[in-house]
Amino acid sequence: MSHSFPSFLRSTSLRTLATAVALTSAGAAAAACSSEATYDSNSTDQGTLNTSTGAPGTTGGLMQTTSAAATTATATVGGTPTTGAATTAGNTTSGTLGSTGTFGGGSFGPTTGAAVTTATVAGAGGMTSTTVTTGSGTTGSDLPPNPSGLPEPGAGGVAQPSGTPGNLVVLPWAGHKGAISYSFDDANSTQINNEQQLMGLGVPFTWYLQTGKQEAGNAFYQRALEAGHELGNHTQSHGSGAADSDVNQAQSFLMSQYSVVGFTMAAPNGSTNNYNNITQQLFILDRGVSDALIGPDDNTNMLNLPSWIPPQGAGTAQFNPKADAAQSQGKWQTVCIHGFTGGSDGAYQPIDLNGFLAHIDYVKEKGDVWIGTMLDVGAYFLGRKAVAAATPTTQGSDQVYTWTLPNVFPPGHYVRVTVDGGTLSQDGEVLPWNDHGFYEVALDVGSLTISP
Ligand SMILES: [Zn+2]
Question: pTM score, two decimals?
Answer without folding.
Answer: 0.75
